[in-house]
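Lab manual, section 2.4: Encoding a predicted structure.

Procedure: take the sequence of the chain (152 residues), apply the prediction step described in section 2.3, and record the output as C-alpha cells. A sample record is shown.
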Amino acid sequence: MKKKNAKLLSWATTIFAAACGIVAFCMIFVISIKTPGYLAKESFTGLQVALGCSINDHTIFNASAGLILAYLFPLVGACASVIGKGNKIVTLISGALLVTGGALALSTLSLLNPTVYFFTLSDPTLAAGPIASGVLALVGGVTLFGSVFLKD
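Recorded output:
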C-alpha cells in the first residue's frame, strides 16, 4: 500500500474511533434503566443512574463511580486518540480506555448502586443507552487497536 493511502487510512480509523467514543459518551443522556411500574418513574437516564437519583425524598440510586467511568473513559479515549495520533503507545492506551468503558457500560446492572428501598420494589432491566454505549466504545477500541498496525 502506498504511504499516502496508508496514512489516510490510519487517520480515517482514528477519526472513526473518536466519533464512536464521543457518541458512546452522549449515550449518558439516553434511557439506561427500566423498571416495572412500581415507581412513579419507570425509566432512568444514564446520568441519573451514574450521579444518583431521588424521587419524593426517597433516594433510588446513589452515585456510582463505575458508571461515571463507563461514560467518561470513551470520551477521554476519543480525545486522546486524536491528540496523540502518531504515537502508538497513546493509541493503545486510548483503545484500552474505549474497551474498558464499553465493558463497564455493558455491565451497568451489576454496577448499580441502588438503595435497599429500590431493590424491594422492582427488578431493573437494561435499556438502549448502555448497550449502544458499550457496543460503540468496543468497536472504537478495536478499531484503534487495529490502526496501531497500519504503517504511517
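Check your result against the sample. The chain has one domain: 3-147.
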